[in-house]
Design goal:
By secondary structure, chain A is α/β, with parallel strands linked by helices. Helices cover 41% and strands 10% of the residues of chain A. The longest helix of chain A has 29 residues. Chain B contains 11 helices and 14 strands. Classes of the chains: A alpha/beta, B alpha/beta.
Chain lengths: 348, 321
């Protein structure tokens, strides 16, 4: 059934919000510190390949991570550092994947944001946008077939991915099967360099959910309290069996697509508009204003975050690098079916 | 009592569903309707809730199967036609095929592709996709030519911990019959000598095995003995059996229904030429379909793909080299 499309406002400051807000803020601050560290390692030539930051998307992302429980499924996309941490991804997994450590979950075979632990419910994204949504659907359908109830799956995507066929197929599939999927869209105004005016022509991305009979809410992605409330409610709706839900957050990517990109194409007017606010700064001001924490406390949290990140990086920098001679160079579980492709023979 | 190639595929799925609660079937029209070719006839009734109709969304169909596999299930996906696997291509080659290598989580899914031409089917209901999928690491590609292999290899596909592209040939569905289902089979990855011979080797797979056997029968009446090797699976490719046959006969012709640029036949010829050049008495030859889309009209279609007639011409030429 199509639910009413509503534009929820930030909930008022209530004491019950204090604890989740502070918990969320700490993950956001940690994510920012971790991201900044990756950026500096990249600039110092210590990271191979790209670095992709979550700057400006922490409030939305952390709300996803905190709305989920152990046993749920989360398919993060490239700007989900905060959500991953809140969902339980160790800092070491992130650092080991960026630095290519063979001790990390991807063992140097894949890098940067392409990491996860599928058996723990954290999927490792492929680069093709929209492709993870139906994989989450499959995990949820499998649980239904096995008689397990009450788990939810979240897939994160951006405004650009809403133009892919995979997005449409998977959202429709979830609706047809009435799966407990929550699709969280960060409309960060640009897909790489392409503005939303060249991405879609509907008034709002919320309209896309209506077409599939999926409930959808819009939220200000710069407002942590609003994100916690709206994402949390969508997850609850899905968990209670009301079918797939979609959340569209308005925010601005406060960085390039990757650290190689100076984002000079971003319209200065958007940067100055409310959507261009930095959610981390906004939440800091809010919790200071509410007297939920003082400046010294915030500083001590930042120092603690920096210390944890520095320790993880120091640990991983002492680890070995991948050894091509120890690779089995087989993509199959069934080793006996691996083809023995011979190298050109010597001495012929 | 006899059983057709298509019935063997249905029976294999029924057995997999009966023996393993992790197995389910997902695809377009596979439920109460029983599939476009009736390969899942009555299975929805026999196994309630486990034979599931999908929307026309090949990408999401394969993606869902991968997700279910992560959760420990063993989905069988039916693509209505092999040709329609292309909208699901991304999920097959980039999601399913890379999952284990990237994450150490196996991806035991079987994707059934009703493959190959039948008269009047035209460009979009006739394709063979085995070479395309074989190109990608992380996939096993099976191409059964017999009723027995259709049955035993499909069961083996479901049992394997890797994603399997199961290319079943539509031309064999109804007319190819066996007396009974097999109780034992060669393991996947082993080719089969479909007919022994000393003068020349024809390597084929799927429907082309039967065209090659017809040529071998014809040549036998003239005193020329052709050995026919049925590859059974094209990935992995049983190079040893091919090489041993080429060593016995000294002449190699490889036949495939696919298009001529690259592919299985090129792979076979390349391997024999590079590793067994000295075994050959003549340059290795290959025969494929013509390099156009598959034509609709039966006259054109019959001339587009290799047949016993065109294989016989190629074989005679090779014997003269």
């Amino acid at each position: 059934m199509v639910q009413a499309v509503i534009n929820r406002q930030a909930v008022g400051a209530v004491p019950a919000l204090r604890e989740p807000y502070l918990q969320a803020y700490r993950y956001m601050a940690l994510a920012r510190v971790l991201d900044d560290k990756f950026a500096s390692l990249y600039r110092g030539g210590k990271i191979q390949g790209g670095v992709f930051l979550s700057r400006g998307q922490e409030a939305l992302s952390v709300s996803v991570g905190l709305s989920l429980c152990k046993g749920d499924v989360f398919a993060p996309l490239i700007r989900d550092t905060a959500g991953r941490l809140a969902f339980g991804e160790p800092i070491l997994d992130a650092v080991r994947t960026y630095l290519g450590s063979p001790l990390g979950p991807m063992r140097g075979r894949d890098g940067n944001v392409h990491r996860g632990r599928p058996k723990a419910g954290l999927l490792a994204m492929i680069s093709h946008l929209g492709a993870m949504i139906s994989v989450v659907n499959g995990m949820l359908l499998a649980r239904r077939l096995k008689g397990a109830a009450g788990t939810v799956g979240v897939a994160s995507i951006g405004d650009g991915a809403t133009s892919t066929g995979a997005f449409h197929e998977a959202l429709n599939q979830a609706a047809v099967e009435r799966l407990p999927l929550v699709l969280v869209i960060a409309n960060n105004q640009y897909a790489y360099s392409t503005p939303t005016s060249r991405q879609f022509a509907c008034r709002s991305l919320v309209d896309k959910a209506v077409g599939y009979g999926v409930g959808c809410s819009a939220v200000d992605g710069t407002d942590l309290a609003a994100c916690l409330s709206v994402v949390g409610e969508a997850v609850s709706e899905a968990r209670e069996g009301r079918g797939p839900q979609m959340v569209v957050a308005q925010l601005l990517r406060l960085c390039g697509h990757g650290e190689h990109d100076d984002a000079s194409y971003v319209d200065p007017k958007i940067k100055r508009s409310p959507v261009g606010r930095d959610c981390l700064k906004v939440s800091e001001e809010y919790l200071l204003q509410q007297c939920w924490a003082d400046a010294d406390t915030l500083n001590s949290w930042r120092r603690e975050a920096a210390q944890n990140v520095d320790e993880a990086i120091a640990t991983v920098q002492r680890e070995p690098t991948p050894d091509p001679y120890r690779e089995d160079w087989s993509a199959l579980v069934s080793k006996h079916l691996t083809e023995p492709h011979s190298e050109p023979a010597n001495g012929l | 009592m006899s059983i057709t190639y298509l019935e063997a595929i249905r029976e294999a799925q029924a057995r997999a569903l009966a023996e393993d609660p992790r197995v389910f079937i997902y695809g377009q029209d596979v439920g109460a309707f029983g599939g476009a070719f009736k390969a899942t006839k009555n299975l929805a009734k026999e196994f309630p809730g486990r034979v599931i109709d999908a929307p026309i969304s090949e990408d999401a169909i394969v993606g869902l199967a991968v997700g279910a596999a992560i959760e420990g299930m063993r989905p069988i996906v039916e693509m209505q036609f092999a040709d329609f696997s292309t909208p699901g291509f991304n999920q097959i080659v980039n999601q399913a095929a890379t999952l284990f290598w990237r994450t150490q989580v196996p991806c035991p899914i079987t994707i059934r592709l009703p493959s190959g031409g039948t008269a009047g089917s035209g460009p979009f209901h006739s394709q063979c996709m085995e070479s395309v999928y074989s190109h990608y690491p992380g996939l096993v590609v099976m191409t059964p030519a017999t009723v027995e292999d259709a049955y035993s290899m499909l069961l083996e596909a479901v049992a394997l911990d890797d994603p399997v592209i199961f290319c079943e040939h539509k031309l064999l569905y109804y007319h190819l019959k066996a007396e009974k289902l097999p109780s034992e089979a060669l393991p996947v990855g082993k080719a089969r000598i479909a007919r022994e011979g000393r003068d020349m080797t024809i390597v084929a797979y799927s429907a082309m095995v039967h065209e090659a056997l017809a040529v071998a029968e014809e040549f036998a009446t003239e005193g020329t003995e052709i050995e026919v090797v049925d590859l059974r699976s094209v990935k992995p490719l049983d190079t040893d059996t091919v090489m041993a046959s080429a060593a016995r006969t000294g002449r190699l012709l490889c036949v495939g229904e696919e298009w001529p640029w690259g592919g299985v036949t090129a792979e076979v010829v390349a391997r024999v030429a590079s590793e067994g050049f000295g075994l050959l008495d003549a340059p290795p030859q290959r025969l494929n379909a013509k390099d156009t889309p598959v034509p609709f009209h039966p006259n054109l279609w019959a001339a587009h793909r290799p047949t016993a007639r065109s294989i016989a011409v190629a074989a005679r030429n090779l014997l003269r080299l």
